[in-house]
Amino acid sequence: MTQTSAGFVALIGEPNAGKSTLLNRMVGAKVSIVTHKVQTTRARIRGVAMEGQAQIVFIDTPGLFKPRRRLDRAMVAAAWGGAADADVVVLMIEAHRGISEGVKAILGRLDEIADGRKVALAINKIDKVKTEALLGLTREMNEAFAFAETFMISAERGHGTDQLRTWLATEMPAGPWLYPEDQIADLPMRMIAAEMTREKLTLRLHQELPYELTVETESWEERDDGSARIDQFIYVGRDGHKGIVLGKKGETIKAVSKASREELEAFLGRRVHLFLQVKVRPNWLEESERYSQMGLDFKDGNV
Fold this sequence. Notes:
By secondary structure, the protein is of the alpha/beta class. The protein is built from nine helices and nine strands. The chain has two domains: 5-170, P-loop containing nucleotide triphosphate hydrolases (Rossmann fold, 3-Layer(aba) Sandwich), CATH 3.40.50.300; 189-301, K homology (KH) domain (GMP Synthetase, Chain A, domain 3), CATH 3.30.300.
């Protein structure tokens, strides 16, 4: 009987380093929110990839940054917690940004989370720099920390990602698979659907509502014709925000609903009837229940 293996890989790095893009590339499906806005990944989303007889469970952690509010602090705590729970850690940095202050801060804490586990370096967006600069960055990073391996990749284009997945597969501990072979994520579909809508809102609204909204799937009804009716609430902090989300004559909410519905239909392979409602909830950032919905620990946000 062929020996199987399975383990957890934590992707860590600064916001916007490409962790969600890499996760989606590895898994082969969209399970993590990907936008050009920083700090969009709130929950520790697990994506499951198969490589031969190895099952690799990716933990896509929130970007590591200097926290200011309760939500920020809970996100950063989740990121470090995800790294501490993993069998292997992959630090992602952007080639063109080099060793930023944020990367230096992460390097300063790597020893404490490594604790016997291997840490690999993945230099992303390699198409944005020249070879000489890339080699110099690789040397500097490996002088700062003893990485088990260094991979030069483009998560968006797929360059170097196969080599990274192959290496990770060899590092997974022997044992039974943790999830069924055809399962790509351990998030409930209700949360994946909410994340898709939140992504569309983030893309559409840009800087207008940076973090002051969240999306929850209120109900999911399977219909006899094979379609699904999905009702979602968009919670905002103030009355003024409600108008921004709705848009002039409801144009924004209609566009978001259409884009989210189309992506859900492609993801599920069937018709979806999506209904969105915007609700004002002034203190949602201080409600423990909202944090549970996002897979975060409310207590981690305490000062």
